[in-house]
Amino acid sequence: MRILFNIYPEQSRQRLAQTHLLILAFLNFDHSVHIVFHEGSEQLIQDDLNIKKEWQALPLYGAHEFLFFDGPDKNISEDKYRHLIQQADFIS
Predict the structure, then answer these.
(1) Total-model pTM
(2) pLDDT tens digits, residue range 47-70?
(3) Where are the chain's structural domains?
(4) Angle in degrees, 0-180, between the axes of helices 49-56 and 13-28, rounded to the nearest 10
(5) Cα distances (angstroms) measured from residue 86 to each of 2, 65, 79, 83, 89
(6) What CATH superfamily classification does 2-91 receive?
């Protein structure tokens, strides 16, 4: 099962924590998890040391590398992002 998580800057810390737990649950069942950060959302993680540690550990559990759709750290094209959306069985 292919999973796509979109992280937006307007998400609350509570929503970010819930998303983290859901990602771990999917990874526990060996699903393919992609995480796309939209411009400004990476700051949510950088601002809190505990959250930063939790999220940085996700690739160790099997999440694909973090993808940045907008902003200065952009490492995914619009075409690849659309492809991820089309291939995903679950999008959050």
Answers:
(1) 0.92
(2) 889 999 999 999 999 999 899 998
(3) 2-91
(4) 20
(5) 10, 19, 11, 5, 8
(6) DsrEFH-like (3.40.1260.10)
